[in-house]
Amino acid sequence: MARAPSGFDLETDVVCCGSGLGAVSAAIAAADLGAEVVILEKAPKLGGVSAFGGGEVFVPANRQMRALGLEDSLEDGRRYFEFLAAGYGSRAHREKLLATLHEAIEYFEDRAGVRWKACQGLPDYYYPDAPGTRASGRYLSVELFPGESLGEWQHRTFLTPIMPMGALHEEMYEWGGLARVTTWNYELLGERITKDLRSFGPGMMGYFLKAALIDRGIPAHPSTPVRELLSDEHGRVVGVRAERDGERFSIRARKGVVVAIGGYDHNREMACMYENMPDWHGVFPDHLHGDHLVFGTEVGAAIASVPPTNLALFYGYHIPGEEAEGKPLYRSSWECGCPHAIWVNRDGRRFCDESFYKDYQPRIRHWDGRRQHQPNLDVFLIFDGNYRERYPLGSFMPGQPLPEGLALEADTPRELAEKLGIDADNFEATLERWNRHAARGEDPDFGKGHFPWSVRLCGDPDYPNPCVGPIDKPPFYGIKLVPVSVGINSHGLAWNLDAQVMHVRGHPIPGLYAVGNSAALLDLGGGYQSGTSNARAITWGYVAGRHAARS
Amino acid sequence: MAETEYTTTTPVAMETLWDFVKEMDHWAPFVTGYQHHEKQSETESTWTLKGDVGVLARTLTFRVRITEWNGPERVRFELEGVNEPMTGAGTFTLSRESGGGPAADAGSAPETAAVPAPAPHKGFFARLAERIARLLFRWRHGRVERPGALADATTPAGGDRILTRMTFHLRIDPGGPMAPMINAMVQPMLVPAAEQLAERILAAVEGRPAASENARSVQS
Ligand SMILES: Cc1cc2nc3c(=O)[nH]c(=O)nc-3n(C[C@H](O)[C@H](O)[C@H](O)COP(=O)(O)OP(=O)(O)OC[C@H]3O[C@@H](n4cnc5c(N)ncnc54)[C@H](O)[C@@H]3O)c2cc1C
Fold this sequence. Notes:
The complex is a heterodimer of chains A (551) and B (220).
Chain A: E1 2-3, E2 10-17, H1 21-32, E3 37-40, H2 48-52, E4 57-58, H3 63-68, H4 74-85, H5 91-112, E5 116-118, E6 139-142, E7 145-146, H6 169-174, H7 186-194, E8 197-198, H8 200-215, E9 220-221, E10 226-231, E11 237-244, E12 247-259, H9 268-275, H10 291-298, E13 303-305, E14 313-324, E15 327-332, E16 341-344, H11 357-364, E17 379-383, H12 385-390, E18 408-410, H13 413-420, H14 424-438, H15 452-458, E19 476-485, E20 491-493, E21 500-502, E22 508-514, H16 532-550
Parallel strand pairs in A: 1-10, 2-3, 2-12, 3-9, 12-22
Antiparallel strand pairs in A: 4-6, 5-6, 7-8, 10-11, 11-12, 13-20, 14-15, 14-19, 16-17, 17-19, 18-19, 21-22
Chain B: E1 2-10, H1 14-21, H2 24-27, E2 34-39, E3 44-52, E4 57-70, E5 74-81, E6 86-98, H3 124-141, E7 162-174, H4 179-206
Bound molecules: flavin-adenine dinucleotide (FAD).
Flavin-adenine dinucleotide binds at residues 17-23, 40-43, 48-50, 52-56, 162, 225-226, 260-262, 283-284, 287-288, 291, 486-488, 516-517, 530-534, 537 of chain A.
C-alpha cells in the first residue's frame, strides 16, 4: 500500500478517476455541493465506453413514459430487476438502485441539462415472458447533442464507429431497422454528421461532459492514468498518484476518490481468468486494464463478483483493416439475428436462438461433463447468397464485396464445412432441417425470432418470422467468431450502499468510492438488460459524488 | 461528392518538381494512410490506403488510371474503389508564377506570401541546421536526394523570384446507399490529406524535413 507523501503536488476535494458516465456523474454531483473536483482519464479522449456505446439508459416508470401516456410502475420495474438478478448479487443494493434511480436521472435532466427522451417501440429484452416487462418506453436515450457546444473538447471526446452516427432510435425503427439499412435516410445522417449532432453514447456523454467541463468548469486531464491510491496511517484513502507524459505526481483528495475506470477487457489474462473464457476481446479501444483491481486491492479493497454466465458478452469479429484509435476494431455480430443466418458449433450443429444474446451467452459456456468439453466455444456464423443480397455485414452493405480474410466462401455447404473445419455431415443435416422449417418461418429447435426485442433490432418485416429465412442460395459463407465484450465484467470492487469500497475485513474504506463497471454488479446480480449499465453508472455516480462532497 | 483543391508555391523550379512527382514511387508513401501501391502499366496502378474518417479507419483499395499525362503542366487521373463503391477524379498542375508580382498564369495568387526566399549568404548555424535536416530526412525516407533543390529558385534580372505553383484537385464520389453519409465523413479529411501530401512533396524536393504544420498558402 502506498503511503501518502508528506507534501502533495496538487490538492482538490474529489478526484474522479475515469471520464465515463460513472465518473462524470460523480463529478457533477460533487461539484454541485460545492466540492472542488478534478477528472483524470487514461485515454487521450474523454467519455469512455459510455461514449462509445449505445447510450440507452433503462429506467422503468420514467418521467418521459408518463408524458407519453405509457403505463408503468416501479413495482413492475422491481419485479423485472429481481427476475434479471436470478437470486444473485444483493437485494439491498438493488432496492437502493431502484429507490435512487429516478432522483438521479431527473437531477441530471433538471440541473445538468441532459435532454432525455424515451425510445418508443423498443421492448424490454424479455418482454413479454418475464414478470413486470413492458413493450416500450423504459429505455431513455438523448435528443441530438450539438458537439460544437463542447468548445475545446469537441474533438477530444469519443465518438463511436459501432452505432449509426447521428441517428435516433425511433428513426432507425421507422426506417426498418438493421435489416433495411440500404433505405435509411443517409442525406439526413450526412447533414447531422457535418453539423456534429450526436446521438447514442456520444450524444449522452456530450450532455454530461458539457455539464461538467463547460458549465461547471471542472478540470479534466486526458492521457493521465491513475496509477496508485494513497492512504494515511488510518487506512483512509487521501489521494492518488497519477502519471502524465511519463512523470508521476500526487494529488490530495480532501473528500474522496471516486474510481470509475471501467472493467478489464484489455487485460487479457485477467479477463480470461475472471470471465472463465479462453479468449477475450473488447469493443472499446485498449484502455480498460483492470487497474482498479490492482490499486484497489493494494489498499485492502475486497473483490466481489456475480456469475459471468449471462451478463453482456457478445460474439463477433474483426474486419481485417478496420481500426479505431489505431487498434483493431472488434464488432459484436448482429447478423445472426437476421433471416438467412445461423450459428453452428464445431460439430456443425446449432445450439441457440441466435437472435437473442441472452439465450446464446449461457449456451456458449455449456460444459459437457461426460466429455469434459465445451462444444459451443467455437462459434461459426453461417449465411448465404440470400443474406448478402439483402443485409449488411458490419459496415459492409449488401452486395458490397467483403474484405479478404473475413469470411470463407464455398459453392456447397459441404465444401464450406470442410473449409471451416467443422463436421460436414452434421452441417449438411443442420442446414437441411433449418431450411425445411425456415420455409414456414419456424424454428422449432430454439425459437429464433421469439422475442420482440430481437425482431425490433434485426428482424426483416417482410418475413413471416422476421428472424428466420432459408440458407439455400450459393455462395455459402462462414466466419469464425470470437468473444467480444462491451466492458461489462463479472468481477469488480466490493461496495456498500453509499458506493464506498469495502475492505477485505468488512468495513468501508474511508475516502474511496467505486461506481460504474469498476464496482461489482451487486445491484444487477446474475443478469443484464441493455441500459442497466448506464443506469447504475449514473445512479451510483450521483450517490458517490454527493456522499464524498458531504464527508 | 467530397472535393478539395489545394494550392501551394515553392521556390523549386518547375522542372525539378516535375522530375520528382512524375515518378509515383517518390511520393506514394506521402499519401495519407498509404499502405502500398503497384503499377500495372504506365497509366494504371492499384493503391491500398488506410482510409481514416476519425471514428473508423478502414483499408481501401483503389484502381487509379491516368487519363492525361501532360507534364510538367498537368496530369489528370480517375480512381475507382476495388472493395468500396467509390469513384473519383483528380488533377495535378504545375505552373510558374512570379514571387513578388502578380501571378504569372491563370488562377488567383496565394493569399499570403509563399516561402521566404532563402538568404543569399546563410550564417554557419543556418547552413549546419539545413545540412542536418537534409541528412535526417534522407535517413528517414531512405532515398537519394537530388542536390541543389533550394538552389533551383531562379531570380531573373528584374529581381522578381520565379516560384512554382502546385495545385491538387481531388474529387471523391462515394456510391451506394450510404453515399451522403460517407461524403459527410470524408469531406473534413480531404483538406488535411491534400495539405499533407503537398507539404511532404515540397519538403522532399526542398531537402528539408516535412513540417507538421503547414505554413504555406492554402486555397481550398
Ligand atoms: C458498443 C457498446 C454499446 C453499449 N450500449 C450500452 C447501452 O445502450 N446501455 C448501457 O447501459 N450500456 C451500454 N454499454 C455499456 C456501457 O457503455 C458501459 O458499461 C458504461 O458506460 C460504463 O460506464 P463506466 O462509468 O463504468 O465507465 P466507462 O465508460 O467504462 O469509462 C471508464 C474510463 O476509465 C478510463 N480508465 C481506465 N483506466 C484508467 C486509469 N487507471 N486512470 C484513469 N482513467 C482510466 C478508461 O479509459 C475509460 O475512459 C455499451 C457498451 C458498448 C461498447
